[in-house]
Amino acid sequence: MKTQQIRNQTPMYQLSLEEKDWKAFTAEEAKRTLTLLLGARRFEEAILDLDKRGLVHGPAHSSIGQEGATAGCLAALTPMTKVTATHRAHHQVVAKMLHALWAKDFDPTKAKQLPDDMREITRTLLADILGLKEGWSGGRGGSMHLRNDAVGVVGTQAIVASGMAIGCGIAWAEKVRNSGDLTVAFFGDGAIHQGTAHEALNLAALYDLPMIFFMENNQYSVSMSIEQSTREGELLTRAQGHGIPSIKLDGMNPLAAYRAAEWAAKEISDKKGPVLIQADVYRYYHQSAPYPGSAFGYRSKDEEESWRKKDPVEFLIAELDKRKILGKDDSQHIESLVQEAVEAAVETCVEGRGSSARIKPDLWPDPATVDNDITGDLSEFEGARFAEPEDYAANELDDARLIDVMPRVVAERMAEDESIYVLGEDVANMGGGTVGATKGLMDRFPDRVINTPINENGFCNMAAGMASAGMKPIVELMYSDFMFNATDALLNQIAKMRHLFGGRYPVPLVLRCRIPGTEGYGSQHSMDPSAVFAMFPGWRIVAPATPFDYAGLMNSALRCQDPVLVVEHQSLQKKTGPIPEKLDYHIPIGKARKVTDGNQVTLLTTLTMCELARDTAKEMGVSADILDLRTLSQRDIDFDAIEASVRKTNNVAIVEQSTRGTSIGAFLSDEIQRRCFDHLDQPVKRVVGRWAAPTVSKVLEQAAVAGQSDIEETLRGMLADTAQQAAA
User: Fold this and answer.
1) Kind and range of the H or E element at 540?
2) DSSP helix/strand/coil, 727
């Protein structure tokens, strides 16, 4: 046997500064870099002091010691650069906002104080970290969730590596708009072991996204060293494995980061793809405590002292003075401006001294606003045309299959709105994806129907970034169960994004999830996702059961400025129904459809069970008032229609095909019993599947989900109870 080592052609570089790099560093560049660095350091010191006094609620992950790399990187890029980051992001946020507000004629060595906009944004940033109403998110973001699009801080996330994938979506939007602006995704060395990190790297490389992955290698996750976390200690290999060129540098030297960022910007411009920068830095304090790591036993005092001797603030001030780029007096003046702005921000938020210090009481948010802005107010539907089939004349409607309506309505909207993109696994292949839901879209919109790799958390987080940048992604999950690969993106990020950032940023994203029904796909391909998504009130959920409803609800989903889950049942896709020639109408989110009118029992149904419940009641001669709920998000359910029906029939059953453990019926039952108790002749009944998920065995699959016999049994029982009460 003969073996030959395979060489990877993707380069990895080690950056070393030369004397000419210092000579080329102008006074203007030095002033900006030092201001960003000192701004981050003094702000972090203020947070650390407030934390020691118990005035920071929750964690405050200090970045003191590692600010030099961030300051150097951002100072070298344009003010319009976009930034995502992780939980340890104060330094990145401060540096980014100061750089974004840097006026061309601003000279920090001559100014009496920082400009008013810099001082004000420092105050509001501090207010947000302290949880106060005048903060960027009204105090909801706290230390780990910071966003201010006006200065390019497009979101920091507490979940490690999520910002890398969300950054892909931001970069996608900038690429499509040809803005020339880069996106920098900051993250730590611990994140590089996350699956999401690799998904993000792969997506950025695959789509040639203009972004910098900036890894601050501070040597530790919380307490685990790199050696404890991975066998391969050369972290640049992660980028190399995805075809991304990378460079490593001494992050305690701000100029090294400055030059690396310049290299990265040129690399992206020349080669049209991402790069990764690894800056070796050191955080002086523990994960989220005002004490060094040695106090917890995972680092030695000698190690900490050796890194402190490389302090980026002291180093840069000394080098600038030694090289006569910027004198110490000028550096001290810059520091005085920064220190005054930070102290002024603290004074606006805190009253009292020492142990008697407290947050000013009138700055706290009103507790009554706790549920505000979970979703938007739907004002975007002002002027929308709503319609039902009965609003059309018979000659205006033609029968069509639901599967044919699905790509047709999306094509109409894509022709009107260039911000709509369709992405998912195989959506651009096989003439219309795996079931034909995107048929014809690739021919008409070849650049806007995007095949994704099998990395659901990655491309769903990327879609979140696209939506947060003002685009309208339609994401297809091939099967609903695949949502569990993307629960961080879908339920931790997208569902919470509007509320977390103070209701100031919409999330116009549509997620299509398919349920195959009783077709033998087994336990991991057969769930109804509605109840899981319903637990997260940031999502709106629609479940169309007819071709007409699909078009109207999809139009509403695409108009809505909140994320909308569209539940698609494969068993309905070949069903036909009347639709108009032009699919330009909407169906309101939160409005049920009357399937049949009756007076004996109320049946609440969705999807495949609408038709089955109707046919079963008809065969049994039961006068059933059947409602297709159509909207399943808890706060949107049409309880007006439900209550009106229950007042008429005094009996209600919830009819679902879902398994019992993943059923939304328990919530509905509880809510109906509290709302309609005085009108109920008997407890709310539930027609629902068994506890077990469907398996491939045909007979066990049929037994796991509810069917006609279950509806019949429930109706007989309800009518018998009603008759017994009447006789009594």
Assistant:
1) strand 540-542
2) helix
Alpha-carbon distance of 100 to 16, in angstroms, equals: 28
- Residues 294, 295, 299: CA angle, nearest 5 degrees: 15
C-beta of residue 43 within 8 angstroms of C-beta of residue 94: yes
CA distance 603 to 616: 11
Give the burial class of 298: count Cβ atoms within 10 A of its Cβ; 0-12 exposed, 13-18 middle, 19 or more buried: middle
What the block records as the tokens of 632 is 């399943």
Nearest partner of 480 among 541, 428, 432, judged by Cα: 541
| Residue 565 near residue 589, CB atoms below 8 Å | no
Q: How far apart are CA 275 and CA 211, in angstroms?
A: 7
Per-position b or e across 40-68, b if 16+ CB within 10 A of its CB: bbbbbebbbebbebebbeebbbbbbbbbb
In terms of Cα–Cα distance, which of 129, 42, 90, 64 is closest to 359? 129
Residues 660, 687: Cα–Cα separation, whole Å: 9
Helices (H), 515-579: 530-534, 547-559
Angle 110-83-271 (CA atoms, 0-180°, nearest 5)? 105
Nearest Cα residue to 100 out of 151, 49, 57, 43: 151
How many angstroms separate the Cα of 27 from the Cα of each of 44, 250, 673? 25, 22, 72
Q: What is the C-alpha separation between 140 and 155, in angstroms, rounded?
A: 13
* φ, ψ of residue 327 in degrees (nearest 5): -75, 160
665-676 and 639-649 are packed helices; what angle lies between their axes, rounded to 10 degrees?
Answer: 60
- 193 tagged catalytic: no
- Distance (Å) of CA 386 to CA 179, 202, 272, 551, 677: 37, 42, 44, 11, 33
- Tell whether pTM > 0.85: yes
Q: What is the pLDDT of residues 301-355, one digit of tens each?
A: 998 898 899 999 999 999 999 999 999 999 999 999 999 999 999 999 999 988 8
Torsion-angle region of residue 278: left (phi > 0), alpha (psi -120 to 50) or beta?
A: beta
CA–CA dist 30, 44 (Å, integer)? 21
- Of 667, 676, 670, 681, which is closest to residue 717 (Cα–Cα)? 681
The residue among 321, 313, 264, 234 whose CA lies nearest residue 66 is: 313
Residue type, 377: D
pLDDT band at 80 (very low <50, low <70, confident <90, very high): very high
Taking the CB of residue 104, how many other CB atoms lie within 10 A of it? 6
Q: Which of 99, 145, 499, 525 is catalytic?
A: 525
> Whose CA is closest to 695, among 567, 519, 484, 571?
519
Token couple for 64: 């003191």
Is residue 473 classed as helix, strand or coil in its secondary structure?
strand
Between CA 358 and CA 368, with CA 364 as vertex, the angle to 5 degrees is 145
Nearest residue to 478 (alpha-carbon basis) of 445, 461, 455, 496: 455
Per the structure block, which two tokens stand in for 92? 């990145």
E strands, 5-147, in order: 12-14, 82-85
Residues 431-484: tens digit of each pLDDT: 999 999 999 999 999 999 999 999 999 999 999 999 999 999 999 999 888 989
